[in-house]
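The material for today's practical consists of a large collection of protein records. Read left to right, the backbone structure tokens trace the chain's path through space. An example says more than a description, so a record of this kind follows:
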Amino acid sequence: MTGSAEIPFSRTISVAHVPDKGLQGRVEASAEERSLIAGLLDLVALDELSFDYTLSRQGGERFMLAGTAQARVTQACVLSLDPIESEPSIQVSAQFWPETELAMSADSDGAIEVDPDEDGPEPIVDGQIDIGHLAYEHFAASLDPYPKKSEATFDWSDARAGSNDEGMDGPFAALKSLKEQT
């Protein structure tokens, strides 16, 4: 299992080394990987990212991956910029098929017929399954894009909101002056 420069959290498993009874394990992002991910996802901090998994054979060269990604993350509140800490636990499951089977199962448009309630199978690339990348994708998708502290409020008022049109100096002021000239 190794990391990759292109993918911020990559841990590959060779399908040739998966025993018939399956494989269980845990992968953890290094401090360097967590720092890179925090920068990519605009996080204040990412103190932990791990993935406990079970990889089992599903017949032929197909595999099923199931597990839980866990993290300790700090995001900035969109209103106050105060730190918001959370410890998400994300359920991950995916099927992995050889690329040749994915190509054969595609219809004439190149689409794969899958259950709409489930993600489609992931490709096994060069005999490798990247469980770290899948855990990273699920973690990134689980983050609140607009984190807000429960007590944070947005109290904004426009001093001009109560004034009349006489003091208009916004983008429509020029239109008002044109109207008055006609």
In short: Helices lie at 31-40, 99-105, 131-142, 173-181. The longest strand covers residues 63-76. The CA atoms of residues 53 and 67 lie 4 Å apart.
